[in-house]
Design goal:
The protein is α+β, with helices and mostly antiparallel strands. Helix content is 45%, strand content 21%.
Amino acid sequence: MAESLETTPETASGKIYSVGQYNRSLERLLKAQVPVIWVKGVITQLQVRGKVAYFTLGEFEEGDAKPKAVLDVILWAWQFDDFNARFAQLPTPFALKPDLKVSFLLEPNFYVPTGRFQPRVVDVDEAFTLGELSLTRQKILERLVTEGLIERNKKLSLTDIPLRVGLITATGSAAYKDFTTVLLQSGYSFDIRVVSARMQGAATEETVTEALETLAKLPLDVICLVRGGGSKTDLVFFDSEKICRAIATCPIPVLTGIGHEIDRSLADVVAYADLITPTDCAKFLEGRVQDAWSALQRKASELRGAWQWTYQQSGYDAVQRAQELRTAWDNRALRESIRQSDAFRQMTASAVRLFQRSREALSLGFKGLSRGPAKIYRAELQALELKEKLVQAADPVSLLRRGFAQVFSVDGKWLRGVDEVSVGDDIRVRLAGGEGPSRVQGEESQGREPRDLGIWHA
C-alpha cells in the first residue's frame, strides 16, 4: 500500500501524507478490501438533495427506541425514483421512507473531499421489505385484535341524521373538494368542521392523530378521514399503529375514504366503516340523511292516514254515543218522573194520615178539656178536706177536749216526760177548760215505769 501513495518529504519519523493523500489511500483500500454486501436496517432519516438521496440506517434492539448503531448511505436521486416506481407495481406496494425496514446492497464509498465513509446503495431487496412490512402489519393487527380495538369504534351508535360532520384531509385537495361538494349540494344542512392533515409522507401519522384528537372534543355526529387518488404506496402510512389506535378509541364514529377497492389499510379495518373514496364517504352520509327524511315522510303519511281514520271513526262513535246518551237520559228522566210521582203519593198519604191523627188528638184533647176541670176540682176538694181533718186531729185543743192535758214548768216550759220533774216541783197543767197550778206529790208505780209520778190536780 505504501508504494501506491504519493511521495512526500521524509521526516525523522518517516513519510508525511497530506489529508487528500490519506483520504485517497483510504478510498483505494476500502474498494480493494471491502466487498459489496447486503446490509439490513431501519431507515431513520431520508433526505433528497439535488442528485443524491441521503439515508441513515439504524439497528435497534427490541423495545429500545435508541439505535444500537447507525450508518449513513447514499443513493443517486434517479435511482431512488426508479426504485420507488418499481416498488409501486408490487402486489403490496411500498416506498422508501423513514421507519421502513430495508435490506440494501452496499458498495464501499469514501468521499475524499470530506473524509466521510458513505456506502452507496446498489440494489434493494424488496422481498425482505415486503416480508417485514407484512410481519409488522400482522403484529399490529394481532395487538389490535387482542386489545379489542378492531370492533370498538364499530360498536358506537351513528345517528340517522349525521349533519354535524368532522373532516380530516388536506385542505384544498381534490379529496376535500369532492367530499364537500357532495354534501353542500345535497340540499341538507350539513355542518362541516375541517382539520387539515397530511395524507402522505412522514408527517401523516402525527397530523392525522392530532386532527382526530381535535375533532373528538367537538359535538359531532361523525368524523370522515379521506384522501384523494394518490399512489397505492401511500396506503402504507395508514397502517400506522398510532393512527389505528386513535381511530379505534375515538368516541365518535369514524368513516374512512382513503383506499382502493382491493387494498385496505389497517385504518380501514378499525374504522366504523370504510367507504373507499371521499365521494363514496360523502354520499353515504347524504344517503343516510335521505333515508331518515324518507322514513319521516312515510311516518307522517301514516300518521295523517291514522288521524283521518281516527277522526272519521270518532265522528261515528260520537253519533252513536250521542244516541246512547239521549236514550239513557230519556230512561233516567222517566225513572225520575216515576220516582217523584211515587214520592208525591207517599207524601200526600203521609200528610193525610198525619192530619187525621192530629184531628183525633185535638178531638180527644177537646173532650178532655171539657170534662177535666170538674174532675180536677172534685179531686182537689177531697184532698183538701182530708188535709183539714188531719190538721184538726192534730190540733192541741182537740186533744185537750178528748181528755189530754198539757203540763208546763212554772217558767212556761212544756214538759214532755216525768224525768223532767221531781217530787215537790211546782207545775202548771192546761186542760180543755183552762189551766192552773199543781205540785208533784209523789211516785206511783202500779202499771207504770219506775219514774212515773202522781200528778196533783188543783
